[in-house]
Amino acid sequence: MLKVEGLKKMYGRMAALDGLCMNIKEGALYGFVGPNGAGKTTTIKILTGLLLPDEGSVVVDGIDAMKDTGKVTEKIGYVPDFFGVYDNLKVWEYMELFSACGGLYGLNARKRSRDLLEQVGLGEKTEYYVDGLSRGMKQRLCLARALIHNPPILVMDEPTSGLDPGTRYEFKEILKDLREQGKTVVISSHILSELSEVCTDIGIVEQGKMVVEGSIDDILNQINVRSPLLITVCRNKEQALNLLRAHPYVETITIRQNDIMVGFTGEQEDEAMLLKQLIEAGVLVGGFVRERGNLESVFLQIINHEEGMVLISEN
User: Fold this and answer.
1) Residue 71, strand partner residues
2) Which one-letter DSSP state was computed for residue 313?
3) How far apart are CA 212 and CA 130, in angstroms?
4) Sheet of strand 14-24, all strands in order from the earlier edge strand to the far edge
5) What was the pLDDT predicted at 162?
6) Which residue, 57, 194, 267, 290, has most beta carbons within 10 Å?
7) Read out DSSP for 217-245?
8) What angle separates helix 295-303 from helix 216-225, to the nearest 10 degrees?
9) Are residues 170 and 202 in the same domain?
10) Cα–Cα distance between 155 and 158 in angstroms, integer?
11) Could you tell me the CATH number of the domain that includes residue 10?
12) How far lies 264's CA from each of 42, 108, 247, 270, 309, in Å?
């Protein structure tokens, strides 16, 4: 659906993008994350036709974005991280203005606008002036505007930034509905916990390069394999500690009362063998699990350049 290869963009002597690649499948809800200055906004501007790269290619639904910007903009709806102008219009006037920009007029424009406002929860706000709406309502209106020409791809830059928890929840539900309707959604956000709840795929960018990309399930599975083992010992803790200290796959040991947290580098089969060894040594084991990892741990590994960075191998 959307394929990016070798994007490069310089601002003076600074490289905003340095060979960035992305591969977004049709129907995906793709989370695009990275630290400040990583190149997220520059990438989004290139995807939406607002900026040209110095090098590289962008193919949107089979269309070369560098050669046919007009057709690409028809395929993409864009929700920026700021609302924009025209605050002095009523909500219905605002929607009809952008309907006209998209080639819709009269009854068709009014029906399309009304349906979209209902979809984003603004059906009862048509007579309100835009500048009288809350930030959350403005974001939803911006989303309705981006959908006016019914694009198959929606690109959103920090759409939930500054919103209260209730409004963020409502926004997430709207995103799920859009994906169920067949939309491909690209969403830039720094709220990683929200991305893990709604996204099917994720890409993490750092210093203008894609460092991790894959499905949420694949990435979380990779994280969990590298997370610490939590062993609850009911009896014979000293025997357990002696065995763990001598084990070749044990890197760190942390004791929390009856729990022992182990930095373990082995695979699942090695875990099973460790459990067997503990039991054979007379240790009464009450619990033996991997702690659940999360996207925050991957993100911190990347931006801090820690060892053990999660990489997703190609199938």
Assistant:
1) none
2) P
3) 39
4) 14-24, 2-11, 55-60, 63-64
5) 76
6) 194
7) HHHHHHHHHTSPEEEEEEE-HHHHHHHHH
8) 80
9) yes
10) 10
11) 3.40.50.300
12) 39, 62, 9, 9, 15
Judge whether 15 lies within some domain.
yes
What number is the average pLDDT over the span 244-273?
90
Distance CA 143, CA 163 (A): 14
309 domain-assigned = no
Residue 198 corresponds to which tokens in the numbers above? 């709604």
Residue that has been written with the tokens 């609850």 in this structure: 232
Two structure tokens written together for 292: 């659940």
Whether 28 and 37 have beta carbons less than 8 Å apart is answered as: no
CA Rg, the chain, in Å?
24
Instruction: Give 291's DSSP letter.
Output: P
Q: What is the CATH number of the domain that holds 272?
A: 3.30.70.100
Tokens for 38, please give them: 């990583």
- Give the tens place of pLDDT for each residue, 73-107: 889 999 988 777 788 899 999 999 999 988 889 99
- Which pLDDT band, with edges at 50, 70 and 90, does 306 fall under? very low
Q: State the pTM of this model.
A: 0.76
Q: Are residues 56 and 184 in the same domain?
A: yes
Judge whether 87 lies within some domain: yes
Could you tell me the strand order of the sheet in which 259-264 lies?
250-256, 259-264, 229-235, 284-290
Q: Could you tell me if 197 and 237 lie in one domain?
A: no
* Pairing assessment for the beta strands 184-188 and 29-33 based on DSSP bridges: parallel
Domain that holds residue 168: 2-214
3-state secondary structure at position 86? coil
Amino acid at 279: I
pLDDT: which is higher, 75 or 225? 75
In 3D space, the residue among 221, 146, 141 whose CA is nearest the CA of residue 186 turns out to be: 146
Domains held by the chain: number: 2
Amino acid (one-letter) located at 264: F
Tell whether 185 and 62 lie within a shared domain: yes
Residue 302, in any domain of the structure: no
What pLDDT is attached to residue 313? Answer: 35
- Residue pLDDT, tens place only, 162-209: 778 888 888 888 988 998 999 999 998 776 777 777 899 999 898 999
